[in-house]
Amino acid sequence: MKRRACWVLAALLAVALGGGLHAAVKAENADWPVTGGSSANIHYSTLKQINTSNVSTLQEVWRFDTKEGGGLETTPLVIDGVLYAYTPTQKVFALDGASGKQLWEFTPEKPSRKVQRGLVYWQSGSDKRIFANISSYVYALDAATGKVISTFGDNGRIDVRENLRDDAKTVSVGISSPGVIYKDLLILGDAMEESLPVPPGDVRAYDVHTGKLRWTFHTIPRPGEFGYETWPKDAWKYSGAANNWTGMAVDTEHGIVYVPTGSAATDWYGADRIGDDLFANSLVALNAETGKRIWHFQAVHHDLWDRDFPAPPTLVTVLRDGKQVPAVAQTTKQGTMFLFNRLNGTPLFPIENRKFPSSTVPGEVTATEQPVPTKPAPFSRQLITENDLTDRTPEVHQWAVQRFHEIRSEGQFIPVSVDKETMMFPGTYGGAEWGGSAFDQATYILYVNADDYGLTESLVKHQEGSLGRTYYMEHCSVCHGADRKGSPPDIPSLIGVESRLTRDQFGDTIQMGRGRMPAFSKLANHGVEMEALRKYLANGEIETPGGGASAPSTEKKPDFDFTGYKFFNDPEGYPATRPPWGTLNAINLNTGEYMWKVPLGEYPALAAKGMKDTGTQNLGGPIVTDGGLLFIGATIADRKFRAYDKATGKLLWETTLPLSANCTPITYEINGRQYVAICAGGQRDLSRPSGGMYLGFALPQ
Prior knowledge:
Radius of gyration: 24 Å
CATH topology of the largest domain: Methanol Dehydrogenase, Chain A
Shape: globular
CATH architecture of the largest domain: 8 Propeller
Strand order of the largest sheet: 1-36-37-38-39
Helix content: 10-25%
Low-confidence stretches: 1-28, 542-554
Largest sheet: 5 strands, mixed
Number of helices: 10
């Protein structure tokens, strides 16, 4: 009776306040107004028309094909029945969420093929705005028409290269994940390289009306700021990155924004940044109104492994001693999870500071200890031994054993060396990744998908050479390797790229990016440098200074270069370890115990031979609903979209998409009918052309 009386009182208050309660309930139940479902980023919906008893009949009811290549990683928004999203070239469009019919489209002046993960919606009365990250700009668009709101910023946009330490014309900075809203503030991170030269990854808040900068948080502290002593003197003048590339979450009740940050530059060799390097690799709680630090936790001291936080945090509520505690859950590339009281940063599961080996690389000084959570147990393997190697065939197993004996495999936080390759497991794609986790607020269960892929890494003494080689080592080698061979099929070789791309196509790729490759505006704005890079890729010669144009001598160069990501795959391109190679995990945050764990995805060619449910590389996150369901795409190799029983992990429904869905799905309701929608872009699957589609599913009528 008390609960009923409270609802009656709430309803009366809603009437008095002009229907505020109805609007709040409608937004929770019907719309998907924020990339993560809500400001708390819990990927959760109370909708239950589609449930465990009928999901097997789910069918496609609309499809929107952008007719563009390049791929997608976008989680759409739905507000009042209208779906908003990106095309592969970062056009912004609106669809009728029930039919998939296009309502409007915005085409930017400067297109880009770097994938975007979402848009931002803000409303005050009749003023409804969509904020769109496009290349290095953020546009304000009228949600009803798609027209630019010219009173925002510089004729409708702000340039995120401005208001940083370095001249805007000299830096390559963009945004891959959407910002967040707090009241009348648009709070933004940025995406940038993690090799020098690059500016610091400051977190900034802008006025949603005018686009004016309201506050800045320096992720590389300046003199007098907290954390300055964790860097060499004046490091803020030359070091860079430590940026928020993956998104944030906002506690709107307490006015706190939670910001996970990435690695400092250069992320594999840090002789010029000796110290713990705050606020790199940190979860930082900031006053959303002012940008002032409230608390922080650094997960990796003096990172040398590219172990940046890979996903936005999830704001949850857990039980401790019978009381509800507001908490924040943060997953890692290492395959672990940290859980904190979100108001004061107190760990809610014990964290141990453990000692790890020192670096043998000249000039490098590793941190003596790293923090390791004791609960929950890691959701990805932490150490690979000979017993963990693939036994897919006797021949492949023999190859893996021989290859394994050439590598140093000792677990987490083993410093990279010059003389021998080091195993990194899980690799830089996780463990967890940018899709993030989902939380069921009724059961206190967190759901996270994970990769169990390894890679090997090493350093090489830096060699001066031609301008083209210098820029290649700065911008390209971290992915494609010092030898330009890449790590197929995940990362393509650049040998012979001149025969695959015309000069104009090469320039467009540098200018706009493609798939996981960012745009390099610094090179694109200087024809000499870009042409030098193109020539180097064509022949790969290493010129000594004087044998061709050399890089500017004023730029600081590392003593050692990273040789590139080299996936620990067998000769046929499959992981050289035993399955599972990808998993879906359900963790009770009250106890830290696993409720269930299942493989996520499979390779069709292996499944046809009887090797099923191996798990695959997966990028994109899950959502959970009150219908008892968990929806997820993510798997690259099989292009599946799946629905699981969230209580047991049992697969209840699946469909094969036209392209892999490396994004997070959404669910919403229009006129009493529940829909589930997801993008399909396929840019991570190099075996077929990429594209850009959105698909909507519903129960038969």
